[in-house]
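Why does residue order matter? Because the sequence determines the fold. Keep that principle in mind as you read this record.
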Amino acid sequence: MAEEPQSRRLTTIVALDVAGYSARTEADEDRTTAEVAALRSVIEGIAGPRGGRVFNTAGDGFMLEFGSSLAAVEVAFALAERCEPKVRVGVHLGDVVVQPNGDLLGHGVNVAARLMARSDPGSALVSADVRRTIRGPLAERLVSRGNLQLDKMTETMEAFALAAVGSTVVAAPSRSREPLLAVLPFDNLSDDREMQFFSDGVSEEIIQRLSRGARMKVIGRTSSFQFRGADKSARKVADELKCTHILDGSIRRAGGQVRISAHLAEAASQTTLWSDRYDRSLEDVFAVQDEISEHIAVALHQTFTSFSTKAIDPSVYDLYLHASPRSYAPDELRANVGLLEVATQRAPQFTEAWGRLAFLRSWLRFYQPFAERAASAHLVTREAERALALDPQNVDALLAQLFLIPPFGRFGVDVAIVERIRALPGVVDGQMFVGWYARNMGWVRESLEETERAYRLDALNPVWANMVGLARMAAGRVAEAVPLFENLMARVPDMSYPVANLLRAKAFLEDWEAVDRLLDPSAKLPLREFQDGVAFIQAKRNPTPENIGGIQSALEAHFRKTGSVDVSRLVYAAHLGLVDEAYRTAEIARLGPQGTADDIMGPDGYRTALLFHAGMPELRNDPRFVPLCARLGLVEFWLTTGKWPDCVDAVPYDFKAECEKARHIPIEEFGF
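Structure:
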């Protein structure tokens, strides 16, 4: 019987492997094996949306196929930048043999692998055959590395790497080289001032729709909406938001008609790439938003997941826009919850309103007495489920469900929701909270990386700026957190978080003059739930026997009155030299709230993040730290997942061995 002819095709191959794999394996084989296993999901998450598929893996190597050379190059540099551990990448367009199992063989595959071997860690090399097939800004930034003699091949081949913007020096790509879009608030050109909220709604809807696409990064609303009127110069927007593209527009209403104009510009050159105008009846505006989003996607050679909002009455949409949080102060949250309750009653299919209502009510719960939280939790659950039934990817609803989980004892449930949020494409808000939660498990470095990454996409969002400041403090980079808190105090004077956090930062930096200014009663700065921290700062400044004794007495008095203790009290006491006293109290106290007026309020109340603060290692450095973590559910979580906290190799004892000893210590119920 004659053999069937082999199937061949022309395709683009991306080859990558882990830089320094052998050395990494020799140093820590188990960790390296786990890292390589995790890489596949990262690679597929980046390549899949651009039409790439993994057709072969071997050890630390991955081979991918793309139908588009441009998509292959975009993915290659994204992988080179984002993958940890660092990878080397090669890209080639060539003829391949298709195996029955989908594997690819042949010279095209071999060339990609040889280019990969010549690439630097964290970078990629592209063959001349690929370079000739692509056009546009990315192609123009590919700089020749000359003709290379590839290993085990007689031919030489010209290879290209990515040059830095404005430079001829070959460099690994930076995050700013990926398309990053800022959608500015559309101008209201009508005499009707109420149309401003309608105009903002058009811009916000475009952001939401574009954010659904895994291939489109969009700067968050809070940052991009800072630019209005005279502040809309492309140069200023690009400089402050570090975006590559800007979408702007205007809305003019005349009676029942509305005209929406939109244009897309490349930020660096200020060149208009696309513009269009839409004349529609006012009630058809949501269909117009779909058209605008589609045209932008085509203009940027992007695609994204379609998302269709039901037509919402403009007056209801105004309620939703008015309920966008600014300071997250309790009074503001209550007012916004009230607006959203009306919006959802009047528009039961308004997905985003249900999600935002669940999110804000779940945040408001942080300020409610624990004894009152059960009824509120029931409402949050109902609202979040309603939003997710309409849209399973509604990030506000997922965050609301996350906030309902107790601060300790159920970390596996936490991480399950966090991973679901992490997988959402293009959602900045959710990614920030991924970093926030990482600190609770002791993953301080990961927390900082995640929060910094999300912050770059919404740098003017006050809550995100505060979270980045906290992540920097937790990682020991206190001085770098100070400008964030100072800027927040100037921009959002009624927000309490940055005041308290700046106070702590200045205390750790021993800038006592700044501490005095912040505590001066005439400044009338809000501290709210952070008021109890003032005594710690005073004792840190003057660690006299009287002040330290006051901290010890307060710790003991709180236990006698409530029978409980929060881990933050233990961390602060140990930092001031009261390590034994802290552990004696912890051994006999309940670690959660009692449902009384003495319970700690706020989003960080009873959370475990402070246990891993770089500047306060005293509690961690004692072996009694592990049994404490076991009671909180952390030891079981670490042993189950195999993902250890950053302190595992920093403490002066065998952390993993102590965790094994403590594995059977019962986990305390949070109780609320």
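The first strand starts at residue 7 and ends at 18.
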